[in-house]
Amino acid sequence: MSWLGLEGKTVLVVGVANRRSVGYQVATALRAEGARALLVVHTEERRAELAKKLGSEDLFVCDVRDEAQIEGLASDLASAHPPLDGIVHSVAFANYSDGPKPFHGTRREDFLDAMNVSTFSLIALSNALKECLARDASVVTISISTTRMASENYGYMAPVKAALDSSVVFLAKSFSRFSDVRFNAVRAGLLKTQSSAGIPGYVESYLFAEQATLRGRGVATGEVADTVLFLLSPRSSGINAKGIVVDAGMDVNYFDREIVRRVTGAEDDA
Predict the structure, then answer these.
(1) Which residue among 7, 46, 55, 228 is the one 20 to 30 A from 15 at the CA level?
(2) Rg (Cα) of the chain, in Å, rounded?
(3) CA-to-CA separations, 41 to 7, 51, 133, 154, 264, in angstroms, rounded
(4) Which residues of 149-181 are buried (b: 16+ CB within 10 A; e: fewer)?
(5) Cα(245)–Cα(196) distance, rounded to whole angstroms?
(6) What is the pTM of this model?
(7) Is 12 exposed, middle or buried (0-12, 13-18, 19+ CB in 10 A)?
(8) pLDDT in tens, 105-138
């Protein structure tokens, strides 16, 4: 039996894109642990693609922009599956089609759409699925390592993720009135995913972040997935309303001597 105690558990993974996505990595890791992973994608086309690799039995379609589809998902799960022992929320969207803009130039429609998909969807799904959850279920969302750094190319998504982090706390408090359901976030450093590739200037940011980590290499998507599994498991039962940072120590290493030397041309006398 696995130390994590996930064997026989049923977990809903919302936001499975492709092999490089956090959702996909979480789903495959759950199945390796003997858990049942129910997968949610946002289009029928994506469902057809993933069915070839993961099978179609436990694949659902739900566009989180559509309240009726969220309610339909809840109805399907309530009638056909055992109580959910966990939910993984790995959903985010931002419109970068016009390239980078100054933050004050953020369009209202873009900001509100990103907030709806990336943050409110966690609230909406949690509310719709509350009757489907086991009393001690664990809900885990995917956030970013810091929302206090004004990364210009990431733009308005940082405030959106800050709202997601706050929503985790308020959902944990709200659900504590009637259950032991836990809510936590995995706050990941920069990753090589398809969604990240759409961020303007992301490659340069990733390469810098990789050098800024204490180990000199970036965070792997599988490392984020492993942290998600821990938070889903009974082994993390004392962790609630928290954000676990997975960034390989990047946030403490911006003044690394080698990085400073490259920027300033200063000699290293140490």
Answers:
(1) 7
(2) 19
(3) 24, 11, 20, 24, 47
(4) eebeebbbbbbbbbbbbebbbebbebbeeeeeb
(5) 18
(6) 0.94
(7) buried
(8) 999 999 999 999 999 999 999 999 999 999 999 9
Token pair for 9:
């558990």
Cα-Cα-Cα-Cα dihedral of 14, 18, 19, 22, to 10°? -40
pLDDT tens for each residue of 173-210 = 999 999 999 999 999 999 988 777 678 878 888 898 99
- Local structure of 267: helix, strand or coil: coil
How far apart CA 88 and CA 103 sit, in angstroms, is 30
Single-letter residue type at 10 = T
What is the rounded distance in angstroms from the CA atom of residue 60 to the CA atom of residue 69?
Answer: 10
Residue type, 6: L
Measured in degrees and rounded to the nearest 5, phi and psi for residue 157 equal -70, -25
Ordered by where they begin, the domains of the chain are 10-264 (3.40.50.720)
- 8 A C-beta contact, residue 199 and residue 154: yes
Distance CA 110, CA 142 (A): 20
Residue with tokens 């070839």: 52
Please say whether the beta carbons of 2 and 33 come within 8 A. yes
Closest by Cα among 45, 90, 51, 42 to 232:
90
- With CA atoms as reference, report the closest residue to 229 among 82, 78, 85, 132: 85
